[in-house]
Every structure is written in structure tokens, then in C-alpha cells.
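Researcher: For the record, we're logging two predictions in this thread. I'll number them. Prediction 1 follows.
Model: Prediction 1, sequence and structure:
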Amino acid sequence: MAGKVNPSMLEMGNQVCFKVLGNDVTVSFAMQAGQLELNVMMPVMAQAILESSEILTNSIRVIGEKCIAGITANVKRCEDYARNTSQVATVLVPILGYAKVAELVKTALKLKIPVIKLIKDKKIMTTKELKYAGLL
């Protein structure tokens, strides 16, 4: 697909996690296999733990350098997502009451519009009141 970017660093991170989980299973079984105070499984447990520590350390460093470094949030887009979600109406429950807010959320979802827009359109609250509630 043209323009597609493969998330290979994150896929590598998943592979490391799977390997660490496998090593954890190895350690768990090895712990159970010890007889009396002599656990002949100590070498395999040590190898699994050390390997997990090493690959986690390396993968976190590489993911940080090649994937996470330089990422910045699109603040405007994040604010739009936060304001346009129906969950923001929860803030209004103490002001308008649960039943009224639930009705508004259902209506907004049905109309496919943000709850804040519905509240403004129906003149339930003023812009000043919405700002005071922290929704604008």
C-alpha cells in the first residue's frame, strides 16, 4: 500500500514481550522442578532472567530512540477529541442531574453531534456556564 509505514519497532517490542513471557514460564516451571534444597534448574532460571533483562533493556532503548523520540502531540486535535467525547457530560451531572445528562448524551449520540453542541443548541447552558464547568 502506497505511503504505508510499518511499525517494525513496536512489532519488535511485542516479540520481546512474548520472549520475556516465555522466559517467565521457564522460570516458573524450573522453580517447581527443584527437589529438596537442591534446585538443579538454577542455571536455566538464571539464563532466562538475565536474557529477559538484557532484551528488555535493549528494546526499550531502541524503541525510545527510533520510535518515541520526537513524537509530539497535536494539542488542538487532542483538545477536540476531549471536548467532543460524550464522557465530558459526566462533569454536568452535579449541575443538571443524572437523568437530564443521560438524556442529553443519548440524544447527542443519536444525532451524531457533540454533547456540548447539543447543550448550546438547546440553550440549556450558556457559553459562560460551560466555561465555568471546564467544558470550553
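Researcher: Logged. Prediction 2.
Model: Prediction 2, sequence and structure:
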Amino acid sequence: MLAARLMAASLCLMASAGAQAQSDYPSKPITVIVPFAAGSGTDVLARTLTVAMTQDWPGAQFVVDNRPGANGIIAAGAAARAAGDGYTLFLTTNTTHSVNPYLYKSLPYDPQADFAAIGLAGETAPALLAAASAKAGSVAEVAALARQRPGALNFAAVNTSSLAATQLFKQQAGVKVEIVNYKAAPQALIDTSSGAIDFFFGDLASGGTLVRGGKLKALAVLSERRLPGFPEVPTTAEAGFPGLQIPIWIGLFAPKATPPAIVDRVNQVMVASLRRPEVVRALNAGAVEPRPTSPAEFATYVAAQLQRWGKLAKDFNLQAE
């Protein structure tokens, strides 16, 4: 009887301590791990969002921790192993949570079992980018050029989305091209704008400035509809390639053991920030459509995207290069 009372008292104290810790949250800076380099589209979104969240959450501080490499595997593994105390979050994309599970036989993380979904930030799609001086001015012209010069054209790839887009293009157009892997989008964009790389299926969050500045041209976006910020760029369906679509989503996670109360609190602030007009404008400028959700809605969305990419991987035999 005494032991039972002591155990009950201990559990009450632990619950009280946990509640107190959550009520004081955050009492130190929150690290947001990003699986891509500074200047990448995901990095730009992370910095835009965390700045807004500090305005909606007095006393909160965020530190963006870029950990690029291995198609996001390094960063995802680190985030999965982090303490579930709310002080490590993971802002990532379909690369780590939808595509990698089908490209790699073994991963140091499980995209569903190791993470707690906080919320969807937004959706976008890659664009087929080329130097402003490139002769090809459409997807059809790129395909024709690739047929004339089998295996001679080179395409940059910086993550599984750009890799999948290139492989999908190869199959849709029936062509052979050379894939050149890069560690980060900024260098791939520089080489594409200079002509050192012929083409790049890259995101407009990082490449949009070069497009607007006349250094790059966007031939089409791989989405069902035209993207915000770039209404003049046609979809691949409009360009004659209706099957050439690669959905990209960006969302926020926490390690699985993170208390639901903390997950909910971060989500509330995230949703409020994503609805700020200045944040909507900033994301739209990078061709990202904000899509605020609840944690439960995002978890369902992630599960559905995993299934969607499983079908894409099977139908188009997507493989890591």
C-alpha cells in the first residue's frame, strides 16, 4: 500500500514537473535543422518563417542549423536522434520524408515512426531552368535538343526532387542526359546561369531572383497549376508534357518523443505566422503557396504523400544516382 502511494505521488510530481516545463517553454533558443544549404529554397523559407514566429511568440528565439548532404539523410538522422524536449525541430521537404524511403535500402531514420508532425508550411514544384542565353525556350525544344545529342546534355541535381524530375523527364521525353550531382542549390544555379550546366530542375524559392534578374529563364513548372510569383511560366501540361509533374512540400517536424502540448504550441504559432500578409507575400515570391494545417492534418498529409511517391517510384523506376 505504501509503495503504491509513493509511486502515485512520484507520478504526480513528474506530471507536475512536466507541465511546469511546458508552461515555461521555450526557456532557451530553439534549433531548427534544415537539410539543405544556406540560400536553398528550404533555407529561405525557414528563415522567413522563424523570423515571423518570433514576432508571434514573444520571448522565443530560433537558430537555423543547416546540415546539407546525402539528400537530407544527415540532417534527418540528426533530427530523429535529438531529444524530444521541443528545442530541436526539423524543417524539411518530401525529399527526406516521401522520396528517400524508396531510393535507399537503408536509412538512419524512419520518416513516420521517428517524427511528430507539427504542420505543413507550403507547397511548390521545381521549374525547368536554363541560362538566359540558352537556345532552347521550351520543354519541347529541350527534348528535341536532347534527342539530337543523346547523352550530351547535362542536368544538375541537388536533391531527390530534382533527381526525380530529371529521371521523369528522361522517360517522358524518351531521351538520355547526363546527371551532375551538386551538394547545394546555389552552386547549381550559378553553373546553370553561366552555361556550365545545361539545365536544372530547381526550385524558384532559391532560383527566382536569377530568373527575375535575367540570368536564368524558367521554361515550365512541374505542377498542376501555375505557381504564385511566376504567373507567366507555363505548367509542363501546358507545355505538352502532362505527365511531368513533381510535387514539393515543406513542413515542420519534431522528434517523436516531443510532448503533444509543445507540438500544439509550435503549430499554433506557425499557423499564425503563415497567415501574416508579409509572410504570404514572401513565400509567394519564391513560388511557394502557404498551406497551414493542424498536426493531425499534416500527419495524414505526410502519410498520403509517402504513398503517392511510392507509386511514382514504382511507375518510373526512380533510383538514386
